[in-house]
User: Fold ABC-type uncharacterized transport system, ATPase component from Desulfosporosinus meridiei.
Amino acid sequence: MLRVESLSKTFSKGSTNEKLALRDVNLSLGEGEFVTIIGGNGAGKSTLMNCISGVYEIDNGRITLDSTDITFDPEYKRSRHIGRVFQDPLRGTAHDMTIEENLSIAFAKGKSVGLQAGVSKKDINLFKERLQLLDLGLENRLKHKVGLLSGGQRQALTLLMATIIKPRLLLLDEHTAALDPTIARKVLSLTRKIVSEEKLCTLMITHNMKASLEYGTRTIMMHEGQIMMDLQGQERKDMTVDRLIEQFEKRSGAELDNDRMLLG
Ligand SMILES: Nc1ncnc2c1ncn2[C@@H]1O[C@H](COP(=O)(O)OP(=O)(O)O)[C@@H](O)[C@H]1O
Ligand SMILES: [Mg+2]
Assistant:
């Protein structure tokens, strides 16, 4: 369970470029809750994730994960409990290493030091089993270098790596935005499958308004560093993309700047 309280973040404080990117954000996620996040460019979506995962120090506020206050924990420490997938397919995997080696590194995160060295037959079987979920034939390519894979295959693999040891929180920052539509859909349905099977507490930023309502159990919309809409239950079930845009423009007094959000 994640709890973000009164979170504020300013970039370039004291300079002429000073930018208040998050304004007093409050957000609580229950066990297994899958929240999609939408909002225009610069709304603060990625900054929120970067503050939760410890990339940025925050001005004010408190971040709690499963009742542990992680506000001042360094990024590497938080990464043991927080799985992340970014937009760039090159970012989450080591291209010069094999699929097996990449998965082993991710898998070692959950083992104690000393047990990390070898990969057992049992581990390999688990890797194959997980790779089969992707339905991309990667289970037969364990010894292939990741650099040989397409962007979509790499992104699917990154998602497996982020979840092979069950994280307490999964953060997805437009993880399908750079993929072609067919593989993007595949990675999204895989995301849904893993999140529901493992009951993962998940935040997923998407530029796709339709996907934001289709996937997950709750949708929040951000604007100028604040959460301006929080949809769940029946209200969310009844929501359409058109009405979502209408609500956004009504509440923010701004026009949606992002054509991308309407596509796909
Ligand atoms: N590292 C940074 N340094 C300075 N300003 C930043 C940095 N990261 C983000 N910002 C600014 O903070 C605001 C929010 O950015 P971001 O969280 O990336 O938006 P989003 O992901 O919603 O598009 C933007 O105005 C952006 O320019
Ligand atoms: Mg972003």
Summary: Strands lie at 2-11, 19-29, 34-39, 60-65, 68-69, 82-85, 169-173, 202-205, 218-223, 226-232. The pocket of magnesium ion (ligand 2) is lined by residues 45-46 (CB under 6 Å). The chain has a mean pLDDT of 92. The chain has nine helices and ten strands.
